[in-house]
Design a protein that fits this description.
By secondary structure, this protein is mainly α. The protein has 18 helices and 3 strands. A hairpin with a 5-residue loop joins strand 1 and strand 2. Helix 14 packs antiparallel against helix 15 (305-319), helix 16 (325-331) packs antiparallel against helix 17 and helix 17 packs antiparallel against helix 18 (351-407).
Length: 408
């Protein structure tokens, strides 16, 4: 018997956590379902005594999970085949035979074997948490209960494609600014460590004293040359400490709230939160998931502690019959446009479709804001880089001029 930690959602939509003793993970999941709850996450509750040994045991040097794009492609093709009238076993067999690589083939073969043994599709998907996220499993579970699996899989694929496109937009937009920053740092380090030290012997031979600004730059270059490795290790250690601190609720919540208050970045983050919230919520509601349970699922996928707190408040408001949009508006986290559209959806009993409409609007707004941010970052980085290089060169020229004055 092993101890398992679990996170589940009750029929009332309340998120609960606990531990249970079970022979394996499947038995732990069965225990959670017998209680009438929806399992969201189960993991082995390892003790603290063998921390390093447990960490080494937990390392997986072979990737056996499907990538995000592969899961999206699998979901889309399965939806098409089921929508065309194919039964689930035949559809999985076809996807197994046409799998692009052995990794995907292994996962699909496992799904097919479990389904042929009598398991539901969502139960088979839950056995592969590294490939299929909890949201995916929960939607399939609701679809199997409602008898609209093909349409739900189509919506899941659309949801994943939209999230992937949004992430790709953000990542692609930061490539050019990142390259500029890398080039700027490289140029400055090269000037400090290779160029400026070449002039030091000239002053030493003439008994001249370097100007203060030039001396400071040479000292900085010497520090980088001699202790650069230790500086990098110190920065890495600080990064690890910061990452560990951000795993705690208090520091992470404060950082998330601070990021949302930043002048330009905060507006972009708010749009990203709004698009993720409305896209997920709308997909869940259209697939028949009750509002309270849907909010509990959205809370766990939104990824921002300030947003999670706002959703908690909105959940309590919805339970009391006060509505969702009003509580979300009071939080001040989400854009006013999203609040207005959700309020309209509540008034017309079309909350799911209006949430998806809001998602499209905020995804487009995110793309526009990203383009503006990049358009602003590129000249700012170029100006800062030019100013830094100009400062170094001016210090060098000042030193040369002082050397000429001494020679005269």
């Amino acid at each position: 018997m092993a101890s398992y930690r679990f996170t589940a959602i009750t029929p009332a939509g309340v998120l609960v956590r606990g531990t249970t003793e079970a022979a394996d993970e499947a038995e732990a999941v069965a225990f959670i379902r017998r209680q009438g709850n929806i399992p969201m996450r189960t993991e082995t509750a390892r003790g603290s005594g063998g921390g390093l040994l447990d960490a080494l045991r937990g390392l997986d040097f072979t990737r056996s999970n499907m990538r995000r794009g592969e899961v999206t492609h699998f979901t889309r093709e399965l939806a098409v085949m089921l929508g065309a009238g194919q039964d689930l076993d035949r559809a999985l067999r076809f996807l197994d035979e046409t799998a692009p690589n052995p990794r995907v083939r292994t996962v699909i073969a496992s799904l097919r074997d479990q389904v042929r043994d009598g398991a539901t599709l969502h139960a088979a998907l839950a056995k592969h948490p590294g490939s299929f996220p909890r949201l995916h499993v929960g939607l399939v579970r609701a679809a199997e209960a409602g008898g609209n699996l093909a349409a739900t899989l189509e919506r899941i694929a659309t949801l994943m494609e939209r999230e992937r496109a949004l992430t790709a937009t953000l990542q692609s937009a930061m490539i050019y600014p990142s390259m500029l920053i890398f080039a700027a740092v490289g140029a400055i380090v090269l000037l400090l460590t290779e160029v400026l030290p070449q002039f030091t012997p000239l002053f030493e031979q003439n008994g001249a004293k370097l100007p203060t600004s030039t001396q400071l730059l040479i000292d900085a270059g010497a520090l980088i040359s001699h202790d650069g490795v230790w500086l990098l290790l110190a920065l890495a250690a600080l990064g690890l400490l910061a990452r560990q601190a951000l795993r705690q609720e208090g520091p992470r919540a404060r950082l998330d709230r601070f990021a949302l208050r930043l002048p330009i970045l905060g507006s972009l983050l708010s749009e990203v939160l709004a698009s993720r919230f409305t896209r997920t919520l709308g997909t869940l509601l259209i697939n028949g998931v009750p509002l309270i349970a849907a909010l509990g699922i959205v809370r766990n996928v939104i990824g921002n502690r300030a947003g999670m707190a706002a959703i908690d408040g909105a959940t309590e408001s919805a339970k009391g019959g006060a509505g969702l949009s009003r509580a979300l508006g009071v939080s001040g986290i989400f854009p006013a446009r999203m609040i207005h559209l959700l309020r309209l959806g509540e008034e017309t009993a079309q909350l799911g479709p209006m949430a998806l409409r809001a998602a499209e609007i905020h995804e487009e707004s995110t793309r526009i804001k990203v383009q503006r941010l990049v358009a602003l970052l590129v000249p700012v980085i170029t100006i800062v880089m030019g100013a830094a290089v100009a400062g170094i060169v001016s210090s060098l020229l000042l030193a040369m001029l002082s050397l000429n004055d001494l020679a005269q």
